[in-house]
Amino acid sequence: MQTVSKKEMQLVQGGNVTTPQGFFAGGLHCGIRKTKLDLGWLYSVVPATTAGVYTTNVFQAAPLLVTQESISNNNKIQAILVNSGVANACTGEQGLTDAYEMRRVFAEEMNISELDAAIASTGLIGVPLPIDKIKAGISRIHIDENTDASKFEQAILTTDTCVKNAAVEFEVGGKKVTIGGAAKGSGMIHPNMATMLSFVTTDAAVKEQDLADALKDITNQSFNMITVDGDTSTNDMVLVMANGKANNETLTKESHDWPVFVNGLKKVCQILAKKIARDGEGATKLIEVQVNGAATDVAARAISKAIISSNLVKAAIYGADPNWGRIVTAIGYSGQQVNPNNVKVAIGSITVVDNGLPLSFDEEKAKDYLSNETINIYVDLKQGNTTATGWGCDLSYDYVKINASYRT
Amino acid sequence: MQTVSKKEMQLVQGGNVTTPQGFFAGGLHCGIRKTKLDLGWLYSVVPATTAGVYTTNVFQAAPLLVTQESISNNNKIQAILVNSGVANACTGEQGLTDAYEMRRVFAEEMNISELDAAIASTGLIGVPLPIDKIKAGISRIHIDENTDASKFEQAILTTDTCVKNAAVEFEVGGKKVTIGGAAKGSGMIHPNMATMLSFVTTDAAVKEQDLADALKDITNQSFNMITVDGDTSTNDMVLVMANGKANNETLTKESHDWPVFVNGLKKVCQILAKKIARDGEGATKLIEVQVNGAATDVAARAISKAIISSNLVKAAIYGADPNWGRIVTAIGYSGQQVNPNNVKVAIGSITVVDNGLPLSFDEEKAKDYLSNETINIYVDLKQGNTTATGWGCDLSYDYVKINASYRT
């Protein structure tokens, strides 16, 4: 028996979606994209209790509808297939037919029930899914010890510049449990789910409704707190699969170690969210905005989002300009009740505004700080005890370059 | 007696805030900015019925508080002083003291009551108002036939690249009436008033409450329907002064020609709003988004704003890329009830989506169209009869350049 003396959560260096027991993943090139991998798959040796959250965009893409159908069947999924390059969004009846066909052929290849298969797509909107290429690709999937999670991580990317993964381990009820994850997302990233896909795996056994509740809550503290450009896409999805291979007693909200599990899940989701924000199109810096002293959770989150969403703040940080006036302005138009005469703003350790008034500070020191790759902005509203953190990135020439010529 | 046979509203070529009878305007350099004009004034020969709308930002700058006090006295203003370079926002008690002093000295120089004077400021936030320079500047104001409205237009600018003016004339109750306007605004421009100042003059006599109601309504169809970057500033203000020098019977909502007057006021405000959008920081194109067939006014406006606010749409138009997927995506996350299967989208005369599905179109023709300086996007939701139009600009390298180094 594997004994774990430590109770503390640990990051697993190099960990990924297959770090938890009983998961395999891989990726291949099926020809949707020119040369990059474009078809990724994730497989659990047994059907896993699965929860999902989905885009709020009314133009929800076909694969999301199909995946929701699968999950709603019995809250179990055994395998996920993801293609990049084409989003299968705004593709009408044909898109839905293609999505069903993609699920059917994949399930057949994996030898599982159709309703135990999930699918996801990301890429161009309004282009028919190249279903024949995908079917040919599916026939080349082999699950064995040589499968490679890094290929899955690559196959789900679009304009991302790097793969995004994370894993943590900890102990619940005397059993070692691992949570791993992979994500993609670079443009169309904004609170309420964006062109963002995230797949989280765990070998913990978790009660289905409690897993769903935890995911929803954690999404609001991770994926829904990042922004790249304010655009919320048609294809966003976060899935978490819990296959129980850790042999722990099934976790529920009543479990003694429930907070430990939730903390681990939050950690993986936040790491992935930050990696997405940092890899925002054209980004050179990660911006982390912590709002403290808010009267309500809604206010803390809205103000954090207003700041990380401000083009003017983002451009100033790209230029290493400590232009706190733009931060204050964003707080002011967030739509939240704020007492201007209370507000404190710090850029890193440099307090630039207190009680609503500017403080004199060393501009050179501030510029130096803003040349770092991670920029922390702290706001204290002095109205209550609620806090929220959001993540974003700077706005660079390259953002414009990438998005002025995405299709050409 | 001046007789006007035409009833139709006419644009006055080269018209400005002094085109209506009884208004004078000028500008000078008082030393806040390096060399550009930075102090503008506008004067009516008699106190004018005045209405205003102001920023919704909770960090409302000191000059707005002082101006609101003046207007609320008896709804009359005779003269307005505007400085650029420093916004007098986030300047606390001292800022308010400076704003009162600015009004007091200006009123004294113009030989009018303090409560008949309004002030406005635009520029850097959090910097003390250089009140001594402004006072010295005020002492150099001379109202005579040599005053020059173009100097007023220049003195109120910040990062704008051009002056913004408009004038129309028409007939009400047999009298010729003129409406003129000047505006500034380039960054921090977003619905709900931005770093945007607009001053409208008319020689019509108008009942004060009806003028205020008309301005509020028209602002929602003009200045509140433009966006450059989504940021709403601390200093936004629109004032309209009606001095009655046209000798018309005082216009009220009940007047036969009330719609004619409202139409004229709307025209001036929309021309100014479009000029602001076109001169957005780094903009190379004006984007006009018309949403038709909406179920409600709120929906039409929200969807128009979502599209003109989308960085991805703006960058695509900069790159002349007919990426309609981004337009559809923006419609989808606007927060409005939309039936995806109804939606029609046209870029100029090229319908790219209908009934929620992409149509094949000539990409080269679309790219050609998107190389124009004015881009029209039409959306038909096929849900009702409501329409709204919004204006914005493309997102260019220069936007980033300007805003990465505004203060340095």
Automatic annotation (TrEMBL), chains A, B:
The record marks 194-195 as: Cleavage. Substrate binds at residues 158, 184, 195, 281, 403, 408. Its EC number is 2.3.1.35, 2.3.1.1. InterPro entries: Arg_biosynth_ArgJ, ArgJ-like_dom_sf, ArgJ_beta_C. The active site is at residue 195. It catalyses: N(2)-acetyl-L-ornithine + L-glutamate = N-acetyl-L-glutamate + L-ornithine; L-glutamate + acetyl-CoA = N-acetyl-L-glutamate + CoA + H(+). GO terms for molecular function: L-glutamate N-acetyltransferase activity; L-glutamate N-acetyltransferase activity, acting on acetyl-L-ornithine as donor. The record marks 122-123 as: Involved in the stabilization of negative charge on the oxyanion by the formation of the oxyanion hole. It holds the Pfam family ArgJ. The keyword Cytoplasm applies. Gene3D superfamilies: arginine biosynthesis bifunctional protein suprefamily, ArgJ beta chain, C-terminal domain, L-amino peptidase D-ALA esterase/amidase. The keyword Cytoplasm applies. One of its GO terms (cellular component) is cytoplasm. Keywords: Acyltransferase, Amino-acid biosynthesis, Arginine biosynthesis, Autocatalytic cleavage, Cytoplasm, Multifunctional enzyme, Transferase. It is an enzyme of class 2 (transferase). It is found in: Cytoplasm. One of its GO terms (biological process) is L-arginine biosynthetic process. Pathway: Amino-acid biosynthesis; L-arginine biosynthesis; N(2)-acetyl-L-ornithine from L-glutamate: step 1/4; Amino-acid biosynthesis; L-arginine biosynthesis; L-ornithine and N-acetyl-L-glutamate from L-glutamate and N(2)-acetyl-L-ornithine (cyclic): step 1/1. NCBIfam families: ArgJ, PRK05388.1. Belongs to the ArgJ family. Catalyzes two activities which are involved in the cyclic version of arginine biosynthesis: the synthesis of N-acetylglutamate from glutamate and acetyl-CoA as the acetyl donor, and of ornithine by transacetylation between N(2)-acetylornithine and glutamate. Heterotetramer of two alpha and two beta chains. This is Arginine biosynthesis bifunctional protein ArgJ. It comes from Terrihalobacillus insolitus.
